Amino acid sequence: MDFTFNAFYTLIAAVIVLLLGRFLVNKIDFLKRYNIPEPVAGGLVAAIISLLVHSLWGYSITTSAELQTSFMLIFFASIGLSANFSKLREGGIGLVIFLFAVSAFIILQNAVGMSLATLLGIDPLIGLIAGSITLTGGHGTAGAWGEIFEVEHGIQGALALGMASATFGLIIGGIIGGPLAKLLINRYNLATARTDQQIEKRDNTPMDSTSEEYVQFEYPHRLRLITADNAITTLGLFAGCLAFAEFMTGFSKGTAFELPTFVWALGGGVLLRNVLEGIFKVQIFDRAIDVFGNASLSLYLAMALLSLKLWQLADLAGPLMVILGAQTITMALYAAFVTFRIMGKNYDAAVLAAGHCGFGMGATPTAVANMQAITNMYGASHKAFLIVPLCGAFFVDLINATVIQMILKFFA
């Protein structure tokens, strides 16, 4: 029997998951030591409880997909609204190098998936589904390509296969990023972990948007001072971004520049902010954008993990589990030996490696949550928070779509 939660019950459940995750991370030393994000910790417990209930009594819960999507779009809009052109220039050559590392990994990810599929005696396109389509692309890309693979390429159950693979990636991406970065930080003595007292003192010190240390998403628990007027104005900006995204998604459908809705939300944010700030000299309230963006990030991740049906993963065929296991090892090794090294083998590079694990296996929100868990413990990494959100939310989807199209043309 399936129970459907409306938006209100979904929101209540997501808040409970977040509070549970915060409690677990604060009380269980293992979770804190290896920098597991709070939404991942709480969400996995909720998913396991849901699995037990389904196995024992046959009950399951379906949450509000519309509300989950709305929070995801708000998060991406907040990335765009935070990206003024002067800050984007700060990414500099680091952004270009990171994009190169990400692009090379997308090709490697598909090579691993398709090669293993061939060796295991299944259609190599199934390896592509268990490659960058679902792991780098996430649930949205999996859904978009699933129907195409079923109709045009004859891969039966491609949509279900893609959703299960993306679910696996979302979980693993949130698990391996923090421990990997911690391992790199400790091995090369890149930073010293802060005490609970130091973290509490920092979080209770109000963050000023004019401060040099201010970077969006870096410290989700830190105090920010905003007013009701700031909040209302910022909500209007978010509404404009989401309206633009909805319009452009419909307008571009079936054209050469068709893009996922969240990419349009991010692009709308970049456009709106820089037009208002650069041309009309309107003040943009970064602190308010940061508050709404961080809240949306946490709620989206909580809802995504809350909606997981782990019993669906049990239906995955053995060969697919082999491929996904190999992809996990490939991601960890690539982040440690390629991403970390070419980004400088310093503290910023370790945080970037954690972020790469997040969107290389799961999604951009997972990448940001991974980095937040690290910087909350070890300190700021402005470079990582300038590069990863924009790269993971915008450029990586364009690169991924191009690579997938080229592979399909070759196999066609």
TrEMBL record:
Keywords: Amino-acid transport, Cell inner membrane, Cell membrane, Ion transport, Membrane, Sodium, Sodium transport, Symport, Transmembrane, Transmembrane helix, Transport. It holds the Pfam family Glt_symporter. The chain crosses the membrane at residues 6-25, 37-57, 69-86, 93-112, 159-185, 231-251, 257-276, 288-308, 320-340, 384-408. The keyword Cell membrane applies. It is a multi-pass membrane protein. It is found in: Cell inner membrane. This is Sodium/glutamate symporter. It comes from Acinetobacter pecorum. The lineage of its organism: Bacteria, Pseudomonadati, Pseudomonadota, Gammaproteobacteria, Moraxellales.
